[in-house]
Design goal:
Elements (H helix, E strand, L loop, with lengths): L9 H11 L6 H12 L6 H9 L3 H10 L11 E6 L2 H5 L2 H12 L5 E2 L5 E6 L11 E3 L2 E3 L4 H13 L6
Parallel strand pairs: 1-3
Antiparallel strand pairs: 1-4, 2-3, 4-5
Helix pairs in contact: 1-2, 1-3, 3-4
This protein binds FE2/S2 (inorganic) cluster.
FE2/S2 (inorganic) cluster binds next to helix 5.
Length: 164
C-alpha cells in the first residue's frame, strides 16, 4: 500500500463527516476516516468537525493530539512499523528501534527529512517467535537485524518506485 497522502480536499473531510456524524461517539470514526482517505488529518478539518458535532475546536484538536495515531501533517511515501510488543522486545526490538531512529533521523510518528519514510510503532505483527519484526507498508519482515533494516530502508530511499 502506498502511503502517499492526497492533497487536502474538503471533499474527503466532508465525506467522512457525512459518513459518521450520526454514529454514537462520532469523533473518532470521523478522524480515522479522514486519515484513511487523506493520509493525515489536515488542520482545516478541525473547524468542520467541530461544527458538525457541536464541539469546540479545542476539543477536536485535543483528541487529535492525544492519539499518536493521527497525523497532523502528510506522512512519508512509505510507512515502516517496528514491533514494540513483548516477544519482540525479548529478541532485541529496543536496540533495533534505537538504531532505526538514528538511521532515519526521526522518532516514532516522524518522517525522514527526504519525505520517504514515516516511522511508527506497532504492537505485534504475528511473527513473535522470529522477532524483531517490522512491516514496510503492507510487507512484513521477521528476524530483522540492524543491517537488514538498513538494507531494506535504504532500498526505499534510493528507489522511490519500490513498494509504491
Ligand atoms: S511481539 Fe512482535 S511480532 Fe508479535
Amino acid at each position: 500500500m502506498s502511503t502517499t497522502p492526497n492533497p487536502p480536499s474538503d471533499d474527503g473531510i466532508s465525506a467522512a463527516i457525512a459518513a459518521h456524524r450520526d454514529e454514537p461517539g462520532a469523533l473518532l470514526p470521523i478522524l480515522h476516516d479522514i486519515q484513511d482517505r487523506m493520509g493525515y488529518v489536515p488542520a482545516e478539518a478541525v473547524p468542520l468537525i467541530a461544527a458538525a458535532l457541536n464541539l469546540s475546536r479545542a476539543e477536536v484538536h485535543g483528541v487529535i493530539t492525544f492519539y499518536h495515531h493521527f497525523r497532523q501533517h502528510p506522512g512519508g511515501r512509505h510507512t515502516v512499523h517496528l514491533c514494540r510488543a513483548e516477544a519482540c522486545q525479548a529478541r532485541g526490538a529496543e536496540a533495533l528501534i534505537a538504531h532505526a531512529k538514528a538511521e532515519l533521523g526521526c522518532d516514532f510518528h516522524g518522517t525522514t527529512a527526504d519525505g520517504t519514510i514515516s516511522l511508527e510503532p506497532v504492537f505485534c505483527l504475528g511473527h513473535c517467535a522470529s522477532g524483531p519484526s517490522m512491516m514496510i507498508d503492507e510487507e512484513p519482515h521477521a528476524g530483522v537485524t540492524s543491517a537488514r533494516f538498513d538494507a531494506l530502508t535504504r532500498a526505499l530511499r534510493t528507489d522511490p518506485r519500490r513498494h509504491e
